[in-house]
Automatic annotation (TrEMBL):
<keyword id="KW-0547">Nucleotide-binding</keyword>
<protein>
    <submittedName>
        <fullName>Biotin-dependent carboxyltransferase family protein</fullName>
    </submittedName>
</protein>
<dbReference type="InterPro" id="IPR029000">
    <property type="entry name" value="Cyclophilin-like_dom_sf"/>
</dbReference>
<dbReference type="InterPro" id="IPR003778">
    <property type="entry name" value="CT_A_B"/>
</dbReference>
<keyword id="KW-0378">Hydrolase</keyword>
<feature type="domain" description="Carboxyltransferase">
    <location>
        <begin position="23"/>
        <end position="285"/>
    </location>
</feature>
<dbReference type="InterPro" id="IPR052708">
    <property type="entry name" value="PxpC"/>
</dbReference>
<dbReference type="Pfam" id="PF02626">
    <property type="entry name" value="CT_A_B"/>
</dbReference>
<keyword id="KW-0067">ATP-binding</keyword>
């Protein structure tokens, strides 16, 4: 068992999401940065869909009440074990009574904590991903006690298991997109603006959607409510660009001008207020 002594800015349990229920209006949810979460599980030898803790910007303080092993990937939020700094992207053995804390954010936005065997929290619709009105709670609270595998065998874990990390994933501003269903309705001037300039992440960014500060003059006609998904870029009547993320709704009525490739959703999930992105079109012709 793991006890939450203090919460961070936004901590939740996530896996790869709730697949197959979108026709009922249920969001996919799941980890914002799939790439980093998979690395955390892979290093521990976990199943690819084992639940991890997603930690945003500032981290919690966690006390372990059993022996286990952990791995932290994604953003570097200066983790420490019993007051001693620990590296990310490295398997770390945990002894009953150990305390894990986080400090200054060095790069990225979201960090992923995997435990051996994954978190064994509530499962709803074949997923442990926390989401409001689907699971009992949508984020972790102080004094929560989270179930993990008690006293697991650690014999197979290599003491120095680690992976070389390419930090260009966090530094790049290029966001690759495909043409969306309403892309052909854009004017040449709009297309020029969208692809020629850097765009800025606004303060309105969360697990549901990212908005950008710059506006695009928009005279497109509204569309009938239609299917949307994580990575869909919508253009609102007042010219705002909204990039839907993992907790997004399943339908929307704004023109869908782009669709992000999966890697670019992961890249965007590590961006925060004031950082720049630049759209780059992937052509399939």
């Amino acid at each position: 068992m793991l006890e939450v002594l203090k919460v961070g800015f936004y901590d939740s349990i996530q896996d790869l999401g709730r697949v197959g229920y979108q026709q009922y209006g249920v969001p996919t949810s799941g980890v914002m940065d799939v790439f980093s979460a998979l690395k955390a599980n892979n290093l521990l030898g976990n199943d690819f869909n084992d639940a991890v803790m997603e930690i945003t910007m500032t981290g919690p303080i966690l006390k372990f009440h059993c022996n286990t092993a952990i791995c932290i990937t994604g953003a570097d939020i200066s983790p420490s074990l019993n007051g001693t700094p620990v590296k990310i992207n490295v398997v770390q053995k945990i002894v009953k009574g150990d305390t894990l804390a986080f400090g200054k954010l060095k790069y990225g936005l979201r960090s992923y904590l995997s435990v051996l065997g994954g978190f064994k929290t509530e499962s709803v619709m074949h997923s442990r991903s926390m989401y409001q009105r689907i699971t009992k709670q949508f984020k972790i609270h102080k004094n929560d006690k989270l179930d993990i595998v008690a006293e697991p065998s650690l014999e197979f874990i290599q003491k120095h298991a680690s992976i070389k990390w390419d930090d260009t994933f966090f530094k790049t501003k290029i966001i690759n997109v495909f043409e969306g269903p309403e892309f052909d309705q854009l004017f040449d001037t709009q297309i020029e603006q969208l692809f020629s300039s850097d765009l800025t992440v606004s303060k309105n960014n969360n697990r549901m959607a990212y908005q950008l500060e710059e506006k695009v003059e928009n005279k497109l006609e509204p569309i009938l409510t239609s299917l949307v998904m994580p990575g869909t870029v919508q253009l609102t009547p007042d010219g705002n660009l909204i990039i839907l993320m993992r907790d997004c709704q399943t339908t929307g009525g704004y023109p869908r001008i782009f669709q992000l490739e999966e890697k670019s959703i992961n890249i965007l999930a590590q961006k925060y207020l004031g950082q720049k992105i630049k759209f780059q079109l992937i052509t399939l012709k």
